[in-house]
């Protein structure tokens, strides 16, 4: 193999590593420098062959106001967020132009169902733990949002606690009530009077 | 470096097999010097001038190595897909990067230091598969959307240079398949605004891409330096184009005509740019190939006819997207006729070029087409049980006839190679 091809081979391998590191760096940067917000969601649970089990997340803030539901698929919409007294962040305004930098906003794209997608619509969970999500009463998502409105999921909050697949399921481990044994014979069957 | 196309089939194979022996005799007789002999040998790859038995043995080694590499790669993907709970993010990422580097390093060492070409190439293939698994695992770690097209695009971009550096056919196949997959994963976003005729748009795009790959392969065959990369491009391109035409032969694809409509909704700019650019590139490649072939061969050959066929199919792809004929029958008949003619052309071209793989692909698609047409037209006409019994009898009879015809065709190809 010529020297040039050897260099090209290792340059390609280095390129693969650099591509992965760049991908990781962008996500890590958002997680560490972005603003942490808590969003309300409603989950569904399918299976991806390539990436294991995951939940599809839909957000409260993904619902477009009436006057924006005619927007074509693929339209970019910026959602300005405001924190409520409960700690949840809710939509205060929807616009097609980027809001001022002193306001926290998240960037979304309209889909064919006229709802917004924010690129945070998937959360991966270990196989066999989907039932924990299915049986929960409330699911929220902690995300980090950078100054461009791009978000990365930090954690899933299930029934008020961070998602932990190793935590015992209270429904499964609850044992039936233990009845004391009795020495008395069972009562005779009822008999009809002639 | 450009050389006249030597791909005229069995005669070439006989010449290439005799060449090493002849060169040795010429050198010993003083007709040519050792340097001249080596210069002639360097014009052909080692696999081209190897005896047929060596080539068969080589293919076996390649096959076993590739299967082994794919199994290891798939095993690692499935291991990744099980979601490593209990391992922190940083160690997970470090393991991914480490395995990729080790895989490539092992493949490089085996191929370029120990001379184990096929096993070494298979290791590099495995490392490319692991790289793809790594891309998807990083996506999983950061909860990137499952079908995000960027994941497949990163995988394709990372593998593309190795298609030309390693000169391994399995890696070429992987690279081309990843290109088509990257487009396939991106397409739903591109046609998100379309609510009728999505199948027509998708099939047309892949028909154009298949023709583009076929045209790329044909041009490479005319250039000696690129000839090792031609066969895979032609095969994958042909299969993609045939599959796309096959989809367009079904009347259900055009069922929006029932409502008096055709393709409704808007595609994104990226889709329109790709479909135009791919078509323009394909035409340019067809003309370039025709020019090179005419310059080298000095006459209008089979290659010219193939170029015309590619141009006609390209035109059909654009017509089906752009022209609302108001009738599903027109397009159904058109694409059934085009498929029949294309398959005939593939068989004739494969026979005349001595390419068994083309003959086999042509016959495979003929078989699939017959089965599809049978079920498409008999489903609503006949009793279900009778359909399956009749289908079985027809298939058995058809299989016997096709196999007999295939054996005859292949025997004629091999017979022209002469006795060993």
What would you note in describing this structure?
The complex is a heterodimer of chains A (194) and B (420). With 194 residues, chain A is of the alpha+beta class. Chain A has helices spanning 3-33, 130-134, 170-173; strands at residues 35-44, 47-48, 52-59, 76-83, 89-95, 105-110, 116-117, 122-125, 139-145, 151-158, 161-162. Chain A folds into 2 domains: 1-33; 35-162, no CATH class. Chain A is built from 3 helices and 11 strands, in the order H-E-E-E-E-E-E-E-E-H-E-E-E-H. The longest helix of chain A is centred in the N-terminal third of the chain and has 31 residues, at 3-33. By secondary structure, chain B is mainly α. A two-stranded antiparallel sheet of chain B has the order 1-2. Chain B is globular. Chain B starts with 9 loop residues before the first helix and ends in a 5-residue tail after the last helix. Chain A binds chain B through residues 1, 5-6, 8-13, 15-17, 19-21, 23-24, 27, 48-54, 72-74, 111-112, 117, 119-127, 152-153, 165-166, and chain B through 77, 80-83, 85, 93, 96-97, 100-101, 104, 108, 112, 131, 134-140, 142-146, 148, 154, 157-158, 161-162, 165-166, 189, 192-193, 195, 266, 268.
What are the salient characteristics of this protein?
heterodimer, A: 194 residues, alpha+beta, 2 domains, seven-stranded antiparallel β-sheet, four-stranded antiparallel β-sheet, 3 helices, 33% strand, globular, disordered C terminus, B: 420 residues, mainly alpha, two-stranded antiparallel sheet, 2 strands, disordered N terminus
């Amino acid at each position: 193999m010529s020297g040039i091809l050897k260099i090209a081979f290792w340059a390609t391998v280095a390129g693969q590593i650099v591509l992965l590191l760049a991908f990781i760096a962008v996500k890590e940067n958002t997680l560490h420098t972005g603003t942490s917000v808590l969003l309300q969601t409603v989950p569904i649970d399918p299976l991806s062959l390539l990436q294991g089990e995951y939940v599809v997340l839909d957000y409260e803030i993904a619902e477009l106001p009436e006057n924006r539901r005619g927007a074509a698929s693929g339209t970019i919409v910026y959602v300005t967020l405001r924190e409520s007294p409960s700690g949840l962040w809710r939509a205060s305004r929807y616009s097609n132009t980027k809001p001022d930098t002193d306001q926290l906003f998240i960037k979304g794209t309209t889909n064919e169902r006229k709802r917004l997608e924010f690129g945070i619509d998937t959360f991966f969970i270990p196989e066999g733990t989907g039932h924990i999500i299915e049986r929960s009463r409330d699911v929220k998502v902690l995300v980090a949002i950078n100054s461009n409105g791009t978000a990365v999921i930090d954690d899933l909050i299930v029934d008020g606690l961070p998602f932990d697949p190793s935590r015992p399921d209270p429904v499964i481990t609850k044992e039936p009530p233990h009845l004391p044994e009795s020495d008395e014979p069972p009562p005779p069957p009822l008999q009809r009077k002639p | 470096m450009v050389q006249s196309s030597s791909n005229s089939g069995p005669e070439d194979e006989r010449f290439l097999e005799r060449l090493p022996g002849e060169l040795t005799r010429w050198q010993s007789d003083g007709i040519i010097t050792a340097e001249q002999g080596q210069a002639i040998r360097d014009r052909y790859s080692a696999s081209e001038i190897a005896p047929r038995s060596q080539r068969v043995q080589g293919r076996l080694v390649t096959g076993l190595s590739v299967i082994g590499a794919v199994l290891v790669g798939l095993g690692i993907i499935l291991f990744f897909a099980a979601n490593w709970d209990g391992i922190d993010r940083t160690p997970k990422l470090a393991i991914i990067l480490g395995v990729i580097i080790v895989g490539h390093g092992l493949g490089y060492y085996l191929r370029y230091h120990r001379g184990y070409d096929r096993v070494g190439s298979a290791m590099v293939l495995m490392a490319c598969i692991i790289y793809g698994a790594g891309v998807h695992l990083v996506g999983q770690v950061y909860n990137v959307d499952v079908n995000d097209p960027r994941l497949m695009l990163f995988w394709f971009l990372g593998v593309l240079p190795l298609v030309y550096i390693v000169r391994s056919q399995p890696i070429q196949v992987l690279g081309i398949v990843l290109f088509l997959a990257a487009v396939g994963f991106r397409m739903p976003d591109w046609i998100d605004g379309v609510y009728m005729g999505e199948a027509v748009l998708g099939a047309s795009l892949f028909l154009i891409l298949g023709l583009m790959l076929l045209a790329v392969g044909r041009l490479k065959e005319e250039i000696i330096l690129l000839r090792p990369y031609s066969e895979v491009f032609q095969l994958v391109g042909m299969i993609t184009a045939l599959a796309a035409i096959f989809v367009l032969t079904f009347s259900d694809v055009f069922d929006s005509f029932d409502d008096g409509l055709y393709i409704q909704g808007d595609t994104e700019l990226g889709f329109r740019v790709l479909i135009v650019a791919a078509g323009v590139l394909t035409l340019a490649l067809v003309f370039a190939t025709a020019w090179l072939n005419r310059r080298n061969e000095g006459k209008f050959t089979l290659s010219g006819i193939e170029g015309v066929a590619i141009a006609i199919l390209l035109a059909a792809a654009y017509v089906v997207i752009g022209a609302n004929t108001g009738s599903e029958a027109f397009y159904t008949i058109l694409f059934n006729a085009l498929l029949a003619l294309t398959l005939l052309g593939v068989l004739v071209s494969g026979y005349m070029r001595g390419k068994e793989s083309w003959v086999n692909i042509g016959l495979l698609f003929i078989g699939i087409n017959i089965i599809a047409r049978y079920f498409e037209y008999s489903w609503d006409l006949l009793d279900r049980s009778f359909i399956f019994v009749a289908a079985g009898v027809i298939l058995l009879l058809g299989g016997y006839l096709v196999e007999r015809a295939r054996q005859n065709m292949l025997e004629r190809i091999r017979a022209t190679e002469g006795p060993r």
